[in-house]
Amino acid sequence: MFIKSISIKKLFGLFDYNLNFKDEINIITAPNGYGKTICLKIIHSLFTYDYLYYFNLDFSEIIFETESGTLKISKDIFKEEVNKKKRFTQSHSLDDEFFYFENSIIIENNEDDEVDEDYRPFNLRFNFEGYEYVLTESKFKRQLINILSEISNLRKAGRNEWINIKTREISGFEQLIKELDLTKPIRNFLPEWLGNFSTGHTSYFIQDQRLLKRINKSPHKNLNSYVQAIDTYAKELKNHLIQSSLDFSVISQDLDSTFPQRLLSKDNSSTNVSKEKIVEELNKVQGNREKLKKFDILPKNTSVDSLITAKNIDDIYVSVLNLYLNDTKLKLKKFDDIYKKINLFSSILNTKLSFKKIKIDSEKGFYFIRQIENNIDYEKEHILNLSQLSSGEQHQVVLIYELIFNTKEDSIVLIDEPEISLHVVWQEQFLDDLKMITEMNKAKAIIATHSPQIIGDYWDLVIDLEEIRKFGL
């Protein structure tokens, strides 16, 4: 399911936008303050069930038109309830009384103080093809609290704080909600039609702050720990390589254990396979192995099938070699996805980096070497720390990595200001790189940018919020 259009009414109380998406890649542009990034977050919140974002956002109505139907999210504001709330707080001491209002009903409060800390007197109303669902912020927060309470390692540690009793990490309520993947339990308490609306797609949001990633919180309040994203992604790629090797081992063990049985089976007929064809296929397999060895996906000492020629194949071995070939193709197929991604990742970066080259390694994931012309041995001696890359180079590596490895098939990729820290030439090349990546991952992308260099010759993909504001387009 891809979004065909979004209509946003009274964003910040000011803007009415109609955004029509028509291609694999769409570009949202406008001056600062028009809500480019907000448009991305509105989409991301829909597919991640982050309805807290909608409660915090100033708007009156959002309409999503998709391939499966039209969903409208609107706010019901209760002025009368605001007055009741004011009268109540004026005539009672909140130190003595523990009540709050929801839908004009007085409800006794419990220890879950989060639900009324940021009280907002409105509902979210969801309408979809004849269905309707009304959600209050307090109800949604209580459901989230219930979900957190069922996670074995989490305990409530304060008014808005939770602690992981194993790691002693302390997290704020809303921060914890963003960090955990709660899409499935949230979907389970929503009406089926609303839960299913967002199920068909994965949304991945690449934010403007990309170089740091938050890790475990300190046991001391308000202390966050961060690591360089580039270090994290090098380790992630190493894990991807390990997993692909494990998948290869599993299918290899399965095929090898049944090889004699299948070889002697009546179904193993190779009468139509020539010796020349066997040699041709062996050479293709060996070529595939060499490609995988280049990125350390396969060990360097793997097989030498290219030494086999048609002359030294006896007739009795044709069926054996044919079955061996079929099995080997199935085994190596397990590496197709990781090879395709690593090959594109390294080729994009190696065309951009000056005097440096990316290397793929099963122990390091990826690393960089310094290159100097006419000095063959220099590469072996000058491995760079990832932190030695410039800010622009790190931005490029992190951005391309996220797009290639973190974007799932049929997902919507939301990219906020891809131009940050990138050289003008890299900005001009970005959309061409993005097109290759989205085609490979069968994904769609929506970009928010200020940069005319990013847009380049692709002005037909642009949605200009300033023009919509001026001319109502």
TrEMBL record:
SUPFAM superfamilies noted in UniProt: P-loop containing nucleoside triphosphate hydrolases
Alphabetical list of InterPro entries matching this protein: ATPase_AAA_core, Bact_Antivir_Def_Nuclease, P-loop_NTPase
A family per Pfam: AAA_21
All copies of domain ATPase AAA-type core, residue ranges: 190-455
Name by which UniProt lists this protein: AAA family ATPase
Organism, as annotated: Psychrobacter proteolyticus
